[in-house]
Amino acid sequence: MKTSQNLLALFNTAVLFTLILYFVSCQAKTQTQDDGPAKRLRDMGVELPEMSAPVANYVKYVKTGNLLFLSGHGACEEGKPGKVGSDLTIEEGYEAARLTGLCMLSTLHHAVDGDWSRVKQIVKVLGMVNSSPDFYEQPKVVNGCSDLMVEVFGEKGKHARAAVGMASLPGNIPIEIEMIVELTE
Amino acid sequence: MKTSQNLLALFNTAVLFTLILYFVSCQAKTQTQDDGPAKRLRDMGVELPEMSAPVANYVKYVKTGNLLFLSGHGACEEGKPGKVGSDLTIEEGYEAARLTGLCMLSTLHHAVDGDWSRVKQIVKVLGMVNSSPDFYEQPKVVNGCSDLMVEVFGEKGKHARAAVGMASLPGNIPIEIEMIVELTE
Amino acid sequence: MKTSQNLLALFNTAVLFTLILYFVSCQAKTQTQDDGPAKRLRDMGVELPEMSAPVANYVKYVKTGNLLFLSGHGACEEGKPGKVGSDLTIEEGYEAARLTGLCMLSTLHHAVDGDWSRVKQIVKVLGMVNSSPDFYEQPKVVNGCSDLMVEVFGEKGKHARAAVGMASLPGNIPIEIEMIVELTE
């Protein structure tokens, strides 16, 4: 009788510890620091711009669960304004998209408190190109941002995307991009 | 021997109760009622419009997890149609955006069964302004909606946002807005 | 004393098994196969097109949590290009939206490894219609996609939606659509 009691109590203890270990392992955060994106930005000779201030009554990003929603961004620094197709060439549009991507990386860097390892996946990019009505090469323009994300984050940078042509954009900027990012926690 | 068995059994019991309490606390919903938004709407002298019916084969909102995706909305009541920049002034566009925001609040109110405390955060606003090709002040127009959200929800109303110019919109309405909201459960 | 020890140990065991059962039931996946969508597609005499390749540096979809974000799609097969309102009629636009929907179903089918039962809900559709500046019937066009989703998925196919008019689209396609889908796991 004592033996069976002992066994039962020991069994209970064992299962309990298993459950506790399960909990702990589930909630432990991966502590490995990923220096990849920081290093790659350095290798590319790129310095992130200062995070720009919102131009109206909104914030640059909102985190919900482990999804980060970034506001529509233009480039942080002023560039050539106008519509791609009439005022800007595809190449100039590509460059504007890349600068816009850098501006979004600056915001993202702020959102993860400077810890790039918290970026799990670039989920979705909506590239909205200020387009003349007969300009049909939006994908080549938005690649300026997409290429940057893949350069910086590798596989984690490959995202779903839409590239479309807008009638006009704030301040006549050539491109505005919004982005959804999955974070690790 | 008996003592150690007793201790083991008591220890097991204690850990079990801790686990159970953890579960219960994790799943308990906050029951506090937040009358803030209802009161603020009253103070603003605003009455929400009736929730409008979809104009086609879709629904006004879909809830997934604790995210609520609202369909693109125009104002619930008919207003001046046309493109901002040519047919409407910035101020008229702002007013249309505010009325659109009220229409979205009406839908949101329905989605949370009238319990404003279930609104945790306005996450994302996409403000699509029917724009003449040379109109560049979309942010000032979309503020009509953003200002309303912040007035009604305070900090919870501050959202990520994109404001862009469309070639045209259904029924030639001046603005269409879609929104993502985080709910408490 | 022995009796109370026995009772305590038995009680612990009982609660443990309850907890374990709870865990197991929470994590068990519903294994029921839903042949509905496959059957309905057969009944409609529809064969899904091959999943198209991305035209630029992005992927067709990204899964985060149980949300699937689909990239902006055009129709998989080439169709009449141009703006709805001037180059295409509403009916031609509707048909293009339906073909775009089929192309998205092809991508979705790939994303769920051919198991339609993993589609829990079509959450959100953003229908972007290549529009002449005076075309105001975007909802009637985007219905081509929305009707298809409801035909194929029934209640699960009813989604939140925005339908808007773009200045231009890649390759001058008449419509580009992006979609968010909730999966079962």
Can you lay out the helices and strands and say which pair or pack?
The structure is a homotrimer.
Chain A: H1 2-27, H2 36-43, E1 61-64, E2 67-73, H3 90-111, E3 119-130, H4 138-153, E4 160-166, E5 175-183
Parallel strand pairs in A: 3-4
Antiparallel strand pairs in A: 1-2, 2-5, 3-5
Helix pairs in contact in A: 3-4
Query: Which residues of chain A sit in consecutive blocks of at least 5 with pLDDT less than 50?
Result: 26-33
With strands numbered from the N-terminus, the spatial order across the biggest sheet of chain A is: 1-2-5-3-4
Q: How many strands, what sense, and barrel or not for the largest sheet of chain A?
A: 5 strands, mixed
Assign a percent range to the helix content of chain A.
Answer: 25-40%
Q: Whole-number radius of gyration of chain A?
A: 23 Å
How does the overall form of chain A come out from the CA principal axes? elongated
